[in-house]
Design goal:
21 strands
Amino acid sequence: MAITSGFFNSLSGDRKYDARQMGEMFDGLIEDGVFMSIGDALKTVPSSGMTVTVGTGRAWFLHTWTKNDSDLLITVSEAESVLNRIDTIVLDVDNTEAKRTNDIFLVKGTPSSNPQRPSLVDTDDHKQIPLADILVPAGSTALTATNITNIVGTSECPYVTGPLSIIKNDDILEAWQEEFDTWFDGVKGTLGSDTAGNLYNLIQQKVDKTSVLDTLNEVDLTTQKGFVAGALALKELNGKTSQFFSASEANSIEITAPYDCAVEVTHTFLGWGYAGNLYVFSISSTSSGITKKADNVGGCEGGDIINKYLRADAIFSGLKKGEKYTFSRQDIFGTSGANNNRRWTVICHPE
């Protein structure tokens, strides 16, 4: 264990720093990830035939930065004749002494009746971060958007946090309230409860309540200049913004309602109708007290052993703050021949 510091002027070469020490200067300010607001955030899209394009963007991993300033064309290897395959576009961060460079390229997967993402390098000084998975169906000669699952923005390849992190109003209000309560308890011990209470009332009277709006209803109804949204209104607003939940490689998703709300639920995966038969599914919930307001079923017609992008959506209302709710896939007709790349998203909207 050692203490390091920097940076200091060098005299006759007695203060030298390497690239890693330069990168460590940003620890605590920038977390590993892709910058969401720069370029296309390294999004992968189909090009033509068996080629895809990785868009422009910038990333920060292992104390190093990577910049792609123009569309990067990548050729996917020829499809197998019988089995499907999953290839992965990766950001290769290689800080080993032999390489010391970053790159973006494709890692080819292994053909299988149940294809999986290829193994990626993950060591202290060499890491391959997945940007997108590409399903290569057997016998295919061209790729479409349904063959590509972008990983950027998920836990496996998050967006950069740090300077872009959001501080919630609740956190600030709690800190202020805690400081005030501590001070007020001290005042009561010095002045006595009656005197301290009178002092508290005087403080409250100093606030010009005629210009402060404490609820969202007041904010909605007031259009005059000179009024401001008070802390209580800001806290109420912060507690009612849309919130997002997600899950992957799961047959269901469970959430805790952040407030009384309605939810949009989406489930996607790669599969086919077993034995070439029609397959239809929807999203259901056994949780009590909620109502399904809209239902967009998903499915496909046959296509045995050829993965297809399948999606279903539903809207439920009546969720209550603090209660747990579970949403799952329900087969309506037939059976799916595979369950690859399962994804769930739930968006909460206040009611």
